[in-house]
Amino acid sequence: MEASETAESIHLSDDTEEAIHLSDTEEAIHLSDTEDNETDEPIDLEVSWEDVLDYRKLTVEDVMAKTFKTLEEAEKFYYSYALAIGFGPRRDTRGGLFEGKLRRRQWVCNKQGYRDKKWLDRETDGSGRNRQKLTRQGCMAKFRVNYMVDEGYYAVRAFDEDHSHQCANPRQAAFIRSHRNVDEAALGNTNTMTKVSIRPCHAFEYMVEQSGGYITVGFTRKDLYNKLDQQRRTTPFESDSEGALSYMSALAAKDPHFYCRFSVDDEDRLVNIFWRDGNSYVDYMCWGDVLVFDNTYNTNVYDRPLVLFVGSNNHRGSILFGVGILGDETADTYTWLLSTFLDSMKGKKPTAVITDGAESMHIAIGRVMPEARHRLCSWHLSRNAHTNLNSKDAEKAFKGCMNKFQTVQHFEEMWEVMLQEFELRNHFWTTWMYGRRQLWAQAFFGDVHMAGMRSTQRSESMNNFVKDTLGAGKKKMVDIVPQMDRAHMRLRNNQVRDDFNTMNSFPVIETHLENLEGHAASTYTYDVYKWVKKEIMKEKFLVTKGFQAAAEDDHSVHKMVNFKRQQYVHEVVYYHGRLTTDEEALEEAVLPPIMVCTCNMFQYKGVPCRHMFMLMK
Asked: What is the pTM of this model?
């Protein structure tokens, strides 16, 4: 593949001692077939990892036999023990003084007790914000020492090791409030960097790098901002491309599942490059059903597009599957990129792809993954509608045809009404869009799982996230690669945070269907639960329109409408569980009951719709 003629080219030296050999087409940094043996790194806090292991081995008898010269020693012991087990302690009751020493001090788990009922019953302040999530779970774990006057030391007199909740793993322990602290050295470093125009968020990332990761830094970005607020209140390579490839070689040495492939022209100039790490491979295997495929500009000195492969995880958060930098935006180049991406993912293809509508992307998707459903970005189509239609009402009607969960017949009826009402029957743009309706109308995607996505806005948000990580100005390749590695770290830290928050809190039940909402809250992650909660709340606007039972295959059809818009009837078909005979095994099996709704939200988003909830209640 030849590179386009540009004033500035990326050159590869021919006389390096340890070179990554370049052919005239492409080379790959090999993806190992061995399994990933990644282990948790030691937590470098006041206690070593060996000490942490020792604390986990302590029995109740070992702890009860402990003595301490001072309360500070006792507190340090229990906090170190709590870090090893994975919970946060806090101070509880204490006794009186004897010759300047406390007679008794008790510590408990931070989940001890329950939130006072008056706070649960208090009305919201009208701002629309969600109430604080519950964290107290009535945990009975405690640790108490008493001062022994005759002996002159503190002895353990009460210790309960049982917790009523799941404890955090070593990766999540960094988010426990009791173990987070911004020390004077970190605060001093941030103040110094602020003086040279380095933002506190960037100072935090620097300290993460110095400490060895988000787990070992000892505090979060918000903790640093809070500390600053409290303070204010009180007082080299031979070429750019070789540097980037050398960095990737180092990543491949540490990560056996790292993958990189690039292509060069006849003059050994780098044309296209794609890379992803081992964690991205795991993410794609878990959440790679829907792929958002988009590019961004103004990130590098060569003015080449940076292409991001983006998806959504179980917290509805954005994840990055891979990154590419291309020499041009032709269909052949995108074909190379998509083929390389699938090769890095062992050939697994997504079920759906969302793009901004570029014709070269559409051609490449048809060549490489013809089975995948291609959807055009609804946000870009809305902008085109604003440009081509003659009124806001016509735009609103077009968006209704594009976004409503409906059948194909409903879509055709709405489209016909729009053409007649706004005199668009002979309009060039609407005629052209109607011919491509299977690429953008929601009615044609009801049977396809899209994780609730309709646009490349997730990719646009990722573009902004990447540009924020890269910083101001155009970067060289040798700077982009490590910065993208840092972007991966930030995204994965967000996912660990979301896992921790979901595990350690439970939403306040507020809807009229308490049992269903409670089951959803215990089944889904918090962000998906909010999705389900909206459907439960909208169920109260539905009314029953009819019911029909069919005896031959043991199912029933339930019709319902929104009482405000009764022209749109939705049907939920409920198949009752029944016995059936497996002809091959010659034995009976039980078919579980299932529900299917004509709105297709469950197939499209993966969560039950309001119509199903009406039938469930």
From this structure: 0.67
Pick from 155, 145, 153, 142: nearest CA to 94: 145
Cα 136–Cα 139–Cα 142 angle in degrees, nearest 5: 125
SS3 447: coil
Q: Tell me which residues of the chain have a pLDDT lower than 70.
A: 1-53, 120-129, 195-197, 232, 235-239, 297-301, 405, 457-460, 463, 467-474, 550-553, 578-590
Helix (H) or strand (E) holding 528: helix 526-538
The mean of the pLDDT values for the chain is 81
Report which of 407, 413, 459 is spatially closest to residue 601, judged by C-alpha positions: 407
What's the CA gap between 477 and 470, in Å, rounded? 11
For 280, list phi and psi in degrees, rounded to 5: -65, -35
Cβ-based neighbour number of residue 54 at 10 Å: 15
User: Which strands sit side by side in the sheet containing 89-94, from one edge to the other?
Assistant: 67-68, 153-160, 142-148, 104-109, 89-94
Which residue in this structure is represented by tokens 């005629």?
431
Q: How far apart are CA 64 and CA 198, in angstroms?
A: 50
Cβ atoms within 10 Å, residue 104:
17
Backbone angles phi, psi at 60, to 5 degrees: -60, -40
